[in-house]
Amino acid sequence: MSKVSRLALGLALAALCHLMPVTLPAVHAAETASEAEAAAQAPALTHAEATAELKRLQTEQDSVKQQASDPDGNTRLHDLQETLRRLDADADKLGAALAPQREQLQAQLDVLGPPPVDGTTREAPAVVKQRAELNTRRTQLDAHLKQASESKENIANLSEQLARLERGHLKDQLALRSESILNPQFWQPLFSPPPEDQARLDGFRDQVVPMLQLAWQPSQRAATVALLLLALAVWTLGRRLAERALAWFCLTRLPETRLRRSALALATTLATVCTTGLAVQLVYHAFARSDELPPDVMALYAQLVKLTLTSALIVGLGRALLCTRHPSWRLPALADPVALAMKPFPAVLAGLLLLAGTLEQINRIADTSVQVTLLGRGLVSLVVVLTIGAALLRANRVRNELAAAGERPEARATLAGMIHAAVTVLVIVSMVALLAGYISFARFLTYELVWFDIVLCSMYLLTQVTRDVCEAVLSTNHASGRVIKQLFGVDDSHLEQASTILSGIGASMLLLVAVVALLTGGFGTTPVDLLNSLLTVLGGEKLRSLNIMPDRILNAVLALGVGIWLLRSVRRWLDAELLPKVCKEPGLRASLITLFSNVGYVLLVLLTLSLLGVRWDNLAWIVSALSVGIGFGLQEIVKNFVSGLILLTERPVKVGDMVSLAGVEGDIRRINVRATEIQLGDRSTVIVPNSQLISQNVRNVTMSNSTQGVASLQLTFPLNTDPEQLRDLLIDVYKENESILDVPAPSVMFSQLAPNGITLSVTGYVSSPRIAATTRSNLLFEILKRLRAADIALTEPQSLRLENLPPFGEASQRAYAAG
């Protein structure tokens, strides 16, 4: 090789060495971009597919939420849990599919490296474009992975909520059966609770303990102790002072009537409840004055306030109604030994209910398992059953001892005996349910039993107070009654009527509130809750649906029974107290009472349908069916019903009238919905449909208060008999009879002259048509006696006619002739 050739080859190698630092990175970058593009084109989830999958997961979660919040409670929570498990698996699959793609993109970006920042090095356009596409896809994958993670968290939260809801539904099932209270397994959670329940209770305790520790700090300890001591003083000493002050007011400021006794009982109850409520508020401020309570602790406090006030009400009612210190002031008719025997039970029941109820509320707020919840409910039920059962047994034993000693126990009304029997049966059924393992059912019965006793005792006390207040305020023996009498210009009878009416209205309103409390309330219900329930019932919200539910059926049956008892009680009150003072006519009173009963039963039926949830716009088919029934078989019944309403409103006949209809003559004793009862002279009763009294001719003998009866005899004598002698004889017989009225005077008329003899008609008036038959018999005896003495014979069998004529007088005679 020549020198020139060797020189050219060296220059070429030198140039190649200088160019290699620039060309090698470019070549490497091109190869890496090719590899990244190949990886991006590998089969994987696209952006649209991932977005659609995430949207499907969110849609199905929303569907699960909607089904879980179904107000009808028809959703199967177990199926929803299976759906959530499937969605959770789909979210895991989506995350597992997106994670490798994200790692692959990150690896490709790491190979490309960060973009140059000095500005001196320039990248190839393909590299810049590739890095931008990879960053965009990485951002999209990060968003998808974040949404998948959030969806998985939402699914876990929703699953926990469904589990809690499922536990709640399981706890609320009255037919749920667990271990019997005699089984040691039932009491095991009391000593060794399950780990998950222990964790929930520890979490709730972690919220309570810091609050107590904060209130017990050295800087806060003195104020806390002072408030606690003040609460104790209010609960004990304050209650006694309040009772004495109210007792002094009742005994010195109220009139000397039964109002003192009932007002004293009410004051005892109010003093117990108010001082207990004030003490609870002081305890609350002792521990929660510095910081706001957590939501769970605040919920527990609200429930504890209800439990405490309800327990205080039990104690107050027991002390007020038993009244062992002053037996002469006692409202119910209880023997002293019976009242002393039952004295400790209200306080014992209230205290045990407060403790057991607090345990149950802690379990509810902490959302413990079904086993622990049933343990708390079992304790509550057992406390109530044993306490009330012991009170019943002790009271019965004392009554038996009194009867054995020859002392007469207290008189008991039929309603009181029925209540005593019902309470006994409920106690026995609750105890059997506890022994059989139906804890929720036993707890339901015992809570309803306690609530029924509270409502019954409260209604009895308030009814007595209302009646005594009306009697005292409207009595002329007191200043208030005299002022009302002078102000309105009414007499004593009107004041007595007003007192009766107001006391009846007050008792009816209290009974309505009691019914609403029994149907819509429960143990721990406050007066505000009762007011809201009353407004809800009166507002007609139960008329908005046609769903027949078991609770509505139970409410309807209870309302029907209570309504029938109420109508009968009000009817007896009207018949015995109000109407005798307002209306003196017996027939009008009977018509008003019957009309009230008919309207009351119609309204009661409508109320029962309302409680069943029947909507009136859905009753068209019932009206159609009823129309067909009336056309075929109910026409007569409806006609008699409408006729009965006409009889009660127009009153062409009324109870006590003497009527004659189609050969039936007697006194009306009762006008019913379908028929009228007419009592004949032989004391038998004829049932006449009401339509006949409207559509046929009815002879009402006593429609006018001044109507008199008249007896007319027609006697036929031989032609040779002296008519003037006969006239004088008959007139003398009529005048000598005590039943014949002097005005109008009896008279004899020559009515007929025939070949077989002469016919005379003799007429005499009596004071009432009902004595005409007896008077006729006496007249016939005397006339036949005198005819035989005068040797006067009759030519043929005689006839007698009884008539009821208007009072004697010219105007009446003209009206009678015109009619």
TrEMBL record:
Species per Swiss-Prot/TrEMBL record: Cupriavidus oxalaticus
Keywords, comma-separated and alphabetical: Cell membrane, Coiled coil, Membrane, Signal, Transmembrane, Transmembrane helix
Topology within the bilayer: Multi-pass membrane protein
Family: Belongs to the MscS (TC 1.A.23) family.
Lineage, opening ranks: Bacteria, Pseudomonadati, Pseudomonadota, Betaproteobacteria, Burkholderiales
Mechanosensitive ion channel MscS domain sequence ranges: 637-702
Main subcellular location: membrane
Gene Ontology MF annotations: mechanosensitive monoatomic ion channel activity
UniProt domain Mechanosensitive ion channel MscS C-terminal: residue ranges: 713-793
Protein name as catalogued: Mechanosensitive ion channel family protein
